[in-house]
């Protein structure tokens, strides 16, 4: 009898003492943590995509190939506008390119793993693309530094199924002036949109045409 009473009291006191912390229903954190940590480690090892760029090659194009000794260090997706000026709004005036402004997001992993759908335009920008003057594109990228370039070569973008025309694919080469990064060459590939209207008829003085492109950055090791 006494034993039963004692056990009942003990059981009650255990129930009572358990009440203030119902978040931990009978599980010891000391026991719960190690298996959890092990599971995370194993899961990451087995499922993380390999995002290295060492063997990633450009989509087929006829631009001059990257120079020997350079490494592909970043593929960024740019989203912004190609800008043009119009002298007036008549059909005899043609739009003149004055540069582009685009936000750059890190697409290295998405391209390396062939998972382009995972590129999120809303993700944190890694840098900006703009023009110093109408012939000097600039890329300012966190962790890489600033690069000012000149256009070396251009080829027409592949035809779109719907007949629309995208801005050309380009090879740009870095110039010493204004460059703080190790980036030596930048390719603009996989363009979408950005092409000027055929004439200035009905256009404003500055025409901004939305575009997207992949920018491939090649840098020297040091
Ligand atoms: C890249 O390709 C080379 C040559 O085919 C190969 O030896 C190397 O393991 C590859 N590297 C990676 C990270 O896939
Ligand atoms: C080009 O267009 C962007 C908007 O995308 C604007 O911020 C920028 O000032 C324009 N640049 C010029 C030179 O008009
Ligand atoms: C519009 O600009 C074009 C190109 O500069 C010029 O040839 C044309 O005479 C201009 N037209 C008008 C109406 O000002
Ligand atoms: C881009 O993302 C990769 C991982 O996919 C990372 O290793 C690299 O440092 C990033 N580059 C920049 C410039 O943020």
UniProtKB/TrEMBL annotation:
<protein>
    <recommendedName>
        <fullName>Malate dehydrogenase</fullName>
    </recommendedName>
</protein>
<feature type="signal peptide">
    <location>
        <begin position="1"/>
        <end position="18"/>
    </location>
</feature>
<dbReference type="InterPro" id="IPR021851">
    <property type="entry name" value="DUF3455"/>
</dbReference>
<keyword id="KW-0732">Signal</keyword>
<dbReference type="Pfam" id="PF11937">
    <property type="entry name" value="DUF3455"/>
</dbReference>
């Amino acid at each position: 009898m006494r034993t039963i009473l004692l056990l009942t009291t003990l059981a009650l006191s255990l129930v009572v003492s358990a009440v203030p912390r119902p978040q931990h229903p009978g599980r010891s954190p000391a026991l719960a943590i190690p298996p959890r940590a092990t599971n995370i480690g194993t899961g990451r090892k087995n499922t993380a995509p390999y995002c290295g760029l060492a063997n990633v090659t450009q989509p087929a194009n006829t631009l001059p190939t990257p120079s020997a000794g350079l490494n592909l260090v970043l593929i960024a997706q740019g989203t912004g506008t190609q800008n043009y000026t119009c002298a007036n709004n008549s059909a005899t005036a043609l739009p003149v390119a004055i540069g582009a402004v685009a936000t750059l997001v890190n697409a290295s992993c998405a391209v390396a793993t062939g998972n382009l759908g995972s590129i999120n335009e809303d993700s944190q920008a890694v840098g900006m693309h703009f023009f110093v003057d109408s012939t000097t594109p600039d890329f300012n990228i966190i962790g890489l530094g600033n690069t000012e370039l000149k256009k070396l070569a251009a080829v027409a973008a592949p035809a779109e199924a719907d007949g629309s025309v995208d801005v050309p694919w380009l090879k740009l080469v870095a110039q010493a002036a204004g460059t703080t990064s190790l980036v030596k060459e930048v390719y603009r590939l996989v363009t979408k949109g950005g092409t000027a209207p055929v004439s200035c008829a009905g256009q404003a003085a500055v025409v901004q045409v939305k575009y997207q492109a992949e920018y491939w950055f090649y840098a020297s090791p040091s």
